[in-house]
Amino acid sequence: xxxxxxxxGTPVSALPTPTLVVDLDAxxxxxxxxxxxxxxxxxxxxxxxxxxxxxxxxxxxLAAGAVGVCVQKLSEAEALADAGIDRLYLSNQxxxxxxxxxxxxxAHRVQLALAVDSPLGVERLATAWRxxxxxxxxxxxxxxxxxxxxxxxxxxxxALALQxxxxxxxxxxxxxxxxxxxxxxxxxxxxxxxxxxxxxTREAVASVQATGLRVPLVTGAGTGSFVHExxxxxxxxxxxxxxxxxxxxxxxxxxxxxxPHFEHALFLKAQVISxxxxxxxxxxxxxxxxxxxxxxxxxxxxxxxxxxxxxxxILHPDEAPLPALGDTVWLIPGHCDPTVNLHNHLVAVxxxxxxxxxxxxxxxxxxxxxx
Length: 371
Ligand code: PLP
Ligand code: MN
Known about the structure:
The chain is built from 10 helices and 17 strands. By secondary structure, it is an alpha/beta fold.
């Protein structure tokens, strides 16, 4: 049987390990900082819910002025809709007719937007939409702006937008996202990559305008790049996700001068369960934190870490003495999104990691929703 959930008021010191903990004070400051950044520049903010998969956090983002949230999978959209989130943008490709049918059904109960990047995708979406009695639906044409993932080449954006309109669907604008460049460490190199992405996006806008259509909105951007999209004058909407938690990987980036400071807000509470003179072993391996972007760091004291497998993380001594058997050690995960997807709940604490107390336990509503 799973451990009982900690009731509100539980001291953080009493939480079992490993537990995924959200520092609410830091999370709220991160949400407010990006909301203020966007508002000051007249930009819409549609944060990516792939990071948290959690309706409670989506509600905090919406309360801070977000126009909706993005999701990456249909089942993720359905789970968040079931949990009461009613403004969703599926910023990814759907090509399976059965799934397109489900998406159209979802558009009858929430405000939905979808993305397309192929004539077949538009054709199938249009078929599903007509069969679904034509609910309101925003359709974005996705453009490949340098990542080499989804999206048409910029010069083909206009033709696809025309096809969207000819099918009777609403052309809502362009999806332009460069995910790879965000993890480039040097701020100057990221700036160069995003300048290239902006040039390709400009080309895509021109391709649409050459058909006589207007581009109502360009949407995209993430935590490692949004200052550049914001400064370009092209993007009207930001989709940052990880800014709420700031994982180790993003903290390794050289920050952009214009970016607000985001704090670490996602922590894994772990415990030393074995100890020798030369190492300490924690009870949290990669079944409780994702390691695709590297190992977590310990916080605030940094010991060198080594992979201990599914259920363990190994700490080696540094200048500071190793923690003792039974001690609590806090980890900052290497990559927040897949870490959250490993947990059923997020324990939200108020008042810090040492003195704080549980304020709420949030369900990860779309956990495991990969379809
Ligand atoms: N938009 C899209 C299409 C994404 O795929 C992602 C993340 O992978 C994001 C936005 C959010 O990016 P980040 O979590 O880096 O802020
Ligand atoms: Mn990620």
